[in-house]
Amino acid sequence: MKPVVPFVPEATSHERDMWQEELGRTLAPYATVKPFEKLTDDERQTATVAIVANPDPADVAALPNLVWVQSLWAGVERLTAELPQDGPLIVRLADPQMADTMSEAVLAWTLYVHRDMPRYMHQQRDKVWQEQLLKTPQERTVGVLGLGKLGSASAQRLSANGFRVLGWSRGEKTRDGIICFHGKEGLFNLLGQSDIVVILVPLTSETRGMLGSEELNGCKKGAAIINFARGPILDVDALVAALDRGHLSHAVLDVFDEEPLTPESPLWQHDKVTVLPHISAPTITGTASMIVARNIRAYLESGRIPQHVDRMQGY
Ligand code: NDP
Asked: Which residue ranges does the record assign to the D-isomer specific 2-hydroxyacid dehydrogenase NAD-binding domain (predicted)?
């Protein structure tokens, strides 16, 4: 009999049936993928690996013998914050396709700011015919916060498109063509030089609220912010204050403290804010399920567990 692998998606997921079908098909030669709510008591007790997608941590805790969980999401802050330290190991989705998709989004929205598109949209609305001064990519510095899988791919794509690129990470790093910083001093150094700041660090206890008024005031005057990581990393009140007094020029926000963004949020109407509905790098079903199937097959055949999250660091 093939082992049963539970699938535990978030309660509100509208994609659960699609994932269930895709994972079921891809893993069929090695395992039976079964939705959490259909597991028998025995299957709950014997499962040692589960596939999760931003699940309710209480559902994961209801599988007491899990050794590890494979996330379909790259961001696993809810699991790292709420699962006990001695709970199952957490494996994030590491899909090269996702890095490619994210770097495309970073390039697209960097170009949107770089080519003054928000301002031309306002000019059209106000029937203003006026050319703005054009800068070349070489004259713009883009600072990328986070040089992991997504940040590195994005920094390299920006650099290949002619931008001067700075990067920032927790530990010291070298990346071809990227000027790398680390530490608090490094952060202020990067912020002070960047025309566009792209946030791609994970949400951890260290990065929560990391960009507040002190850091935003430390940004170059007229800089724009692109947050593609997680909402709580950026203090939105401090951001709006910096936009309103003209210190920052624009913000492209794909992630928020509360998602979906509530209809009452002032961000919807703010002239200097572009709101996106968490779309910069969605998980691609086809490539992600192949990676998940490969990981789970290796575990079932040899007991090998893929590289997992460091619970002390939170990512
Ligand atoms: P990685 O774990 O590969 O990289 C994280 C990077 O952030 C590393 O360079 C790490 O430094 C750096 N970092 C972590 N903590 C700190 C800190 N305290 N100070 C400075 N740097 C820090 O993550 P990914 O690149 O795969 O993903 C980044 C995030 O993107 C995810 O956590 C997720 O939240 C978000 N995301 C958003 C999506 C969207 O659609 N909007 C889609 C997918 C992911 P070091 O290299 O030294 O370890």
From this structure: 109-280
